[in-house]
Amino acid sequence: MPTPRMRKDVSKLDASDQTLQWYARAVHDMQQRPPGDSTSWQYQAAVHGTLQNPSTFTQDQKQAWAQCQHATWFFLPWHRVYLGIFEDIVSTTVAKLGGPKDWALPYWNYSPPGARALPPAFTAKQFAGLPGQNPLLVERDQGNDGKPFLDNKAVSLNCLKRANFAGHLVPGGDSGFGGPTRGPNHMGDSDQGQLEMVPHDMIHSDIGGLMGDPDTAAQDPIFWLHHANIDRLWEVWRKMGNANPTDPKWLSATHFFFHDASGKPATFTPQDVVDTVNGPWHYQYDNLANPLGNVH
Ligand SMILES: [Cu+2]
């Protein structure tokens, strides 16, 4: 098995670290690819959601686009697959451009008081020696001035106190850490799991702009660092002694369709991705400490 990639905290990268410079170069490269190429920036963003009318979709796009899972217990595993494929595409692109072969997606852990501003690479007008505007700088309602903008409520990690992954689809009921037991669900504001509501939704809506709408969110390069943190918090929660569902309805009954980093159609179930080190991608996080301290 290859050495697992290490996903690192973006706020703690050394001054000499080139992770974000290579990210910007890879984003720029992906943006030059034709939108029909499943490894292009536009195509990858459309897998989450798109403003294009579904009646214009090709047969392939009908299966692959506008698939993000929300307000369901598939929220976490679906986004884990989405990130795994994206990280693969970026890392292949970084290597092709002459960068390191072990590039890994960094995560933005916005909960500590010192990390509540966008990382400077996302607000600089120019970056990484690229021509024109920095591809990491896009339209946002807040954050582009480089100042901290997230309050305590937005970055609260109370979701980690939930012992149950699965919740119930009952109005006002317990939606669980990971979301209510239900079939695949593309959109939906209500009945979200606790991690999906806070901090996930709060970060999306506080940044606003592209991030404020699921149909455009993945066009903002910060989306991927935000979701890497959400994926990390799932691992933090597990490491605290909590367990994923064992119900086959969650583990293996639902197959999600994607194209892998080589463009080949591929399906995944949550069972395929519960182990980050031994799954289809091999990665780990540099910090899985319980941020709540010793909670009794
Ligand atoms: Cu999101």
TrEMBL record:
Keywords associated with the record: Copper, Metal-binding, Oxidoreductase
Pfam family, one: Tyrosinase
Domain of life where this protein originates: Bacteria
Annotated InterPro entries: Di-copper_centre_dom_sf, Polyphenol_oxidase_cen, Tyrosinase/Hemocyanin, Tyrosinase_Cu-bd
Cofactor: Cu(2+)
Boundaries of every Tyrosinase copper-binding domain copy: 70-87, 220-231
Family: Belongs to the tyrosinase family.
Protein name: Tyrosinase family protein
Organismal lineage: Bacteria, Pseudomonadati, Pseudomonadota, Betaproteobacteria, Neisseriales
